[in-house]
């Protein structure tokens, strides 16, 4: 079964690296055209050059944009419409985790997490919803995290706001169904999208513990998977997350909305 994404247009926020870039690659390999955005023009240019090698520069558009800036997101949407004339899928992928517990999370930290997790979805959706609907079979896919269902004390603000984000997406799925736009989410577990490599390089583990000197990254990843009780015994790859995103964004999921897929290696929930 094919994805039927040929000549469709997919927009990926946070598309210059990690899961976002892997998602853009998957779409291009399926024959789609892709627009990516991110805050760093340098990283976007590098990603665009690499992505263009897959199917040519005419299939790739990269635009510097902070998804929390309403005017910037609207300008990005206008440029996508001008360049490609349509949008069939919007992947809301921008975001990061904040490592803190109850005692170390300030009021401003809570506000920042709320803004990032909610408005990184709301502002792109507002900007693209009309052209998504005009496609006749639009799709919105949000990359979220297993934290939404399995909270961790050292990621308290991120887990709480991710849970609220899932509730938001469920509401949007019902509101947008009559205008032919589906809304789904992919819940990411431990995937080496770059952050875990950076953790290894910093020498500090996720719980604030120090990584023993002389431990290779591969061995640390295996130990990390064991400590998180991942049955498959390893971290996932950005491409594995991207394949789940492709499914939800494509006509293969044409009768699915308001749902989630967990890309977690079988990691059990705490709640």
- The SSE string, one letter per element, is EHEHEHEHEHEHHHE
Shape: globular
State the helix count.
8
**Strand order across the largest sheet:** 3-2-1-4-5-6-7
Largest sheet: 7 strands, parallel
Label the structural class.
Answer: alpha/beta
Assign the CATH topology of the largest domain: Rossmann fold
Which superfamily, in CATH terms, is the homologous superfamily of the largest domain? Answer: NAD(P)-binding Rossmann-like Domain
**C-alpha termini separation:** 35 Å
What fraction of residues sit in β-strands? 5-15%
Domains (count): 2
CATH class value of the largest domain: Alpha Beta
Rg, rounded, reads 18 Å
* Unreliable sequence segments: none
What would you note in describing this structure?
This protein is an alpha/beta fold. The chain folds into 2 domains: about 10-190 and about 235-265, NAD(P)-binding Rossmann-like Domain (Rossmann fold), CATH 3.40.50; about 190-235, no CATH class. It is about 45% helix and about 15% strand. It is built from 8 helices and 7 strands. It has helices at about 20-30, 40-55, 70-85, 105-135, 155-175, 195-200, 215-225, 240-250, and strands at about 10-15, 35-40, 60-65, 90, 140-145, 180-190, 260-265. The chain has a 7-stranded parallel β-sheet, sandwiched between helices. Strand 5 (about 140-145), helix 5 and strand 6 (about 180-190) form a beta-alpha-beta unit. It is globular, with a radius of gyration of 18 Å.
């Amino acid at each position: 079964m094919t994805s039927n994404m040929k000549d469709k247009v997919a927009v990926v926020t946070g598309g210059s690296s990690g899961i976002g870039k892997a998602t853009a690659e998957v779409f291009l390999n399926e024959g789609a055209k892709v627009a990516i955005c991110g805050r760093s023009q340098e990283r976007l240019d590098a990603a665009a050059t690499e992505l263009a090698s897959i199917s040519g520069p005419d299939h790739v558009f990269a635009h510097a944009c902070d998804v929390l800036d309403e005017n910037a997101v609207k300008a990005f949407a206008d440029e996508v419409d001008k360049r490609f004339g349509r949008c069939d899928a919007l992947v809301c992928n921008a975001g990061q985790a904040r490592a803190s517990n109850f005692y170390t999370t300030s009021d401003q930290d809570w506000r920042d997490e709320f803004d990032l997790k909610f408005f990184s979805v709301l502002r792109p959706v507002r900007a693209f919803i009309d052209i998504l609907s005009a496609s006749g079979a639009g799709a919105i896919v949000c990359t979220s995290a297993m934290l939404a269902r399995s909270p961790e004390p050292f990621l308290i603000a991120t887990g709480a706001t991710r849970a609220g984000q899932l509730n938001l997406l469920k509401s949007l799925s019902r509101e947008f169904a009559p205008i032919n736009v589906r809304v789904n989410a992919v819940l990411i577990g431990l995937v080496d999208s770059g952050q875990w490599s950076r953790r290894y390089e910093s020498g500090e583990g996720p719980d604030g513990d120090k990584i023993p000197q002389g431990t290779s990254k591969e061995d640390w990843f295996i130990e990390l998977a064991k400590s998180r009780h991942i049955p498959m015994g390893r971290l996932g790859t950005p491409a594995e997350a991207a394949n789940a995103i492709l499914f939800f964004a494509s006509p293969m999921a044409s009768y699915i909305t308001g749902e989630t897929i967990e890309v977690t290696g079988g990691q059990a929930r705490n709640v």
